[in-house]
Amino acid sequence: MNTTKAEPRHSTSPAPQATTPIYLDCDPGIDDATALTFLLRTHRASLVGVGTVAGNVDAYTGACNAADLLQLAGRLDIPVAIGATRPLAGDFSGGFPHVHGEDGFGGVSLPPAALSEDAEDAIEQLINCARRYAGRLRVVAVGPLTNLALALEREPALAELLDEVFVMGGALDVPGNVTPFAEANFWSDPEAADQVLRSKVSVTVVPLDVTMDHALTSSQVGRMSTSADPLARSLADMLRFYGERHEALLGDAIFALHDPLTAALATHTALISNTTNLPLRVETRGQERGALTMGTDQTPNVRIVRTARETAAAEILQIILMETSAHG
Question: Which helix (H) or strand (E) segment is 26 a member of?
Fold first, then answer.
């Protein structure tokens, strides 16, 4: 097992202070909304597109949610595209309304934004962004990996066009959050997740092993609720719903930063403490369907984040609230 300090994986990666072009593939979703807000607020990222996939909610509802949030943030310049409406195999499960609410935002209403009727689909949008920012585009994938798997099929050169893909998914040495074995994103489309991990794309996986260690406190969510920024206040309302649902399910009001942490590690790589390169695969059959497992070929093709800086949650909050921070 090769455990290393986190370093850029490509010679084409931007310098630490550079602005990174980011494409967000998501299924909004409350923690997706928090990740999207983080990417809008950090000076390290230039968000060039948002694609949605069936996951926490259906792909259309997710796109509406993303567009509404972007409008509230005053960023209608960022295009939103609807992607895969079902996994590669089988049908859409119906999402996770018991965690995110029927609308994905915990019943928190934002002023509605109009989706473009002639917009390209999210798979084509991703491919076009990869061509436009060849060698520099970093994908933050925080939903099921269906769009990315379909994009790899549609454009065989995609692996060479992308800089890196940061994936929120899987549970390696901890229990899953849908089954004892599987995390929600990989469980929702294990075939797609396995295809992406087996591909030639440079993939960094941020599993539950890490994300469950980084959460906001009730007092930190309270700080968001008193902000002068309407977007921060709306996020606080969503997160309260998120915490209440976790308390009902797990007995603890957890404000886990699954998706925001993944976005932060993709743009502020100094937050990564260490990583391991492993031959990772995703189980597609049986009771362990969706489980993140070790492959048999022993080729360490995937980088997995083992730990992140202890202050990551506080630093994410500072950026969302647009507070001055001394951290890199």
Answer: strand 20-26
**Residue 249, CA distances (Å) to 68, 98, 212, 243, 246 in order:** 28, 9, 15, 10, 5
Amino acid letter, residue 113: A
Residues 62 and 105: beta-carbon distance below 8 Å: no
Contact 78, 49 (CB under 8 A): yes
Task: Examine the residue annotation and report whether 213 is marked as an active-site residue of this protein.
Answer: no
Question: Is residue 60 very low, low, confident or very high in pLDDT (cuts 50, 70, 90)?
Answer: very high
User: Six-digit token pair at 90?
Assistant: 């089988």
Q: Which residue is catalytic, options 214, 246, 258, 268?
A: 258
Q: What is the pLDDT of residue 1?
A: 42
- 268 as an active site residue: the answer is no
Containing 193, the helix (H) or strand (E) segment is: helix 190-198
Residue 325 has pLDDT above 80, yes or no: no
277-281: average pLDDT: 95
Measured CA to CA in angstroms, residue 186 lies from 43, 208, 265, 293 at distances of 30, 11, 19, 11
DSSP reduced 3-state for 280: strand
Nearest-10 Cα torsion for 162, 78, 211, 197? -30
> One of 27, 58, 68, 259 is an active-site residue; which one?
27
Phi-psi bin for 186: left (phi > 0), alpha (psi -120 to 50), beta? Answer: alpha
Both tokens of residue 158? 């995609």
Position 34 confidence tier, pLDDT thresholds 50, 70, 90? very high
